[in-house]
Description:
It is built from 13 helices and eight strands. By secondary structure, it is α+β, with helices and mostly antiparallel strands. It has three domains: 7-121, Orthogonal Bundle (Butyryl-Coa Dehydrogenase, subunit A, domain 1); 123-239, Butyryl-CoA Dehydrogenase, subunit A, domain 2 (Beta Barrel), CATH 2.40.110.10; 240-389, Butyryl-CoA Dehydrogenase, subunit A, domain 3 (Up-down Bundle). A hairpin with a 2-residue loop joins strand 2 (141-145) and strand 3. Helix 1 runs parallel beside helix 4 (69-81), helix 4 packs parallel to helix 9 (239-275) and helix 9 runs antiparallel to helix 10. The chain starts with 6 loop residues before the first helix and ends in a 7-residue tail after the last helix. Residues 91, 123-127, 132-133, 157-159, 209, 217, 370, 373-377, 379-380, 383, 396 line the site of flavin-adenine dinucleotide. Residues 91, 123-127, 132-133, 157-159, 209, 217, 370, 373-377, 379-380, 383, 396 line the site of flavin-adenine dinucleotide (FAD).
Amino acid sequence: MEFQISEEHQLLRGAVRQMLSRHEHQKKAWREMTHRDHKFNYELWQEFADIGLLGALVPEEYGGNNSGLLALTLGFEDICTMGFSPSLMLVTCMDTACILKNGTEQHKREIIPSVIAGKTILVFAITEPDAGSNSFRMQTVARREGDRYVMNGQKIFITGVEVADYMLVVARTTTREQIDAKGLPKAFGLSLFLVDPKTKGITKTPIPTVATEGVYQWQLFFEDVEIPAENLVGVEDQGAMAMFNSLNPERILVGAICCGMAEQAINMAVSYAKERKVFRETPIGAYQGVQHPLAEAKIQLEAAKLMTYRAAWAFDQGMEPGVVGSYSNMAKLLASDVALKAVDASLETHGGIGFAEETGLAQLWNGARVLKTAPLNREMILNYVAEQELGLPRSY
Ligand SMILES: Cc1cc2nc3c(=O)[nH]c(=O)nc-3n(C[C@H](O)[C@H](O)[C@H](O)COP(=O)(O)OP(=O)(O)OC[C@H]3O[C@@H](n4cnc5c(N)ncnc54)[C@H](O)[C@@H]3O)c2cc1C
């Protein structure tokens, strides 16, 4: 194993710790603001930008600090360990990576510096009512008409559209029927577009959900939406590879978020278990029935962290996307499993008070549970590993 966490990797993490410890006293109020009042925390977003998180994946020539994905992973992990959340930043960073790899010079010069400065928020739109785990079934179509594309279709569960400046939308530029008729592979015909959510012809409906970070999930309808041709990211019809490459950093950062959530839950349980006395003067932390689930979660957390760091390191090394894909998927599965396990053990340790809103544990459980299913569910990861790593045949 060659990867190392250098002092440079730790810089971003140090900045996160320093910045968030200044906001420790606001944590509860901010949690209420985002979870209960559904308000996005622009102040925190700006501070994340100011310490360089949004420029971590960006080379210096576009204004970034080029710290890399491993440094960002450590930063994300600590944000969650300290009880805050970077979920929407995850999507913006993933889109940034995609634009850097596939976008035009104009995209990079116009959009990326503004993202780094905290002024532009990006979201990602791929899921459709009939195309979630199987994105190739998507039916949203963008047809080229002169100097623009005209988009029709719908998307669902798109996070944060109300605060987004651009959505990176995946649509078909060759329909499934055309592909079947020509005998082309199903991955052919997808393209990526930068779309302003305020464009004429887009209708937005919020889907009230639990476990969000001050933003809604949205259902979107596109009716003859005109998109300038220069907003195409990458090559027309060849978007599948561009898209899947940017899903690797997303999974790695989800792994980091889950590791931080697990760490936070374990820390809370340990503090509480040292103080809480139920029988005589013995703190409950002395009972092995309380210790063992926490100790198991701790061991699994260390394994999940190592897998997540290795995946991030492989991405930074520019290793082959297939290798990074396997590492990322495995890390995401382990980390989301341990997040749920740790939060559950922490809830059990806290007893009834764990369900009081003030502890934040019930919200944390919701957050961890969502990450078992999204952005990629556990079953699809197991399918991937069975096929790609074990060479077993596909059943679906
Ligand atoms: C809070 C939240 C935020 C989200 N944000 C975004 C976003 O910003 N942008 C975006 O594009 N999408 C987003 N999504 C959508 C998310 O990525 C999808 O929900 C997810 O990919 C699963 O797709 P689906 O809901 O259509 O489930 P389906 O594809 O219908 O699958 C349902 C279940 O069937 C099982 N299953 C399906 N296929 C197989 C198989 N081959 N083998 C075994 N089991 C299988 C799995 O258990 C799966 O959970 C979000 C979802 C949530 C809940």
